[in-house]
Write a structure and sequence with these properties.
Blueprint: H1 15-20, H2 23-37, H3 43-55, H4 58-70, H5 72-80, H6 82-88, E1 99-104, E2 109-114, H7 123-126, H8 131-134, H9 136-144, H10 146-152, E3 162-167, E4 172-177, H11 189-193, H12 198-202, H13 210-214
Parallel strand pairs: 1-4, 2-3
Bound molecules: fe (iii) ion.
Length: 215
């Protein structure tokens, strides 16, 4: 960063620098400039949202899931008003962040999340989505053959369990609250969080069993 740019808060790359970016990055810059120009949000708000997303990882979601397993009252709040419940744990989602819905897996219902259009994902809690989530193969097959997709991830859902495929949008993102694995009585919240994988919060797998986590 040049001395000129320092103290300015963020960078405004010139045309020469833009030309070195790929087409997607250039498009993102153009959209950002338009959003600011039209007064939809400020450059500072965009920067803040990017910083939050980059600071988050599946470990943050796992913490939330483990808390819900430990505390049924928190779980009820999380399902009813995720934004408020998350702020209790220090995850204040920015106003500009899309709505987040938390969907609970039960013995009778298994939820699977996809974005058929692009790659919408609860980045403000889980960080960056995995590459396969953005692939055309997953986006199309998750809808047509969700059980087949889950089998490829090693998860066989019994025929008598209803599978719900949830299609994320720019306005609404989903977090799966997986079922607490059996044999986890007496485990601490921290130990439970280690069982919660990223993929189990998308719904393509279940959380790790304590035996597998120990191995
Ligand atoms: Fe999307």
């Amino acid at each position: 960063m040049s001395a000129e740019q320092e103290g300015h808060g963020h960078e405004h790359p010139g045309m020469a620098e833009d030309a070195e970016l790929g087409p997607i990055a250039r498009r993102a810059r153009a959209i950002e400039a338009l959003l600011v120009e039209k007064g939809i949000c400020t450059a500072g708000e965009i920067q803040r949202a990017v910083e939050i997303n980059e600071s988050r990882s599946p470990a943050d979601g796992a913490r939330v899931v483990a808390r819900a397993w430990m505390d049924p009252v928190f779980k009820a709040r999380l399902l009813a008003d995720p934004r408020a419940a998350l702020s209790e744990l220090g995850y204040a989602l920015p106003e500009t962040t899309p709505q987040l819905a938390v969907v609970e897996n039960t013995p009778g219902v298994h939820n699977l999340v996809v974005c058929t259009l692009c790659s919408c994902y609860p980045r403000a809690l889980l960080g960056t989505p995995p590459d396969w989530y953005k692939s055309l193969a997953y986006r199309s097959r998750a809808v047509v053959d969700p059980r087949g997709v889950m089998r490829e991830f090693g998860l066989d859902i019994a025929e008598d369990v209803e599978v719900r495929v949830l299609d994320s949008t720019a306005d609404l993102r989903y977090l799966v609250l997986p079922q607490r694995p059996p044999g986890t009585d007496g485990m601490s919240e921290e130990e439970l969080a280690k069982l919660v994988s990223r993929d189990s919060m998308i719904g393509v797998t279940n959380p790790r069993s304590p035996e597998i986590a120990r191995a």
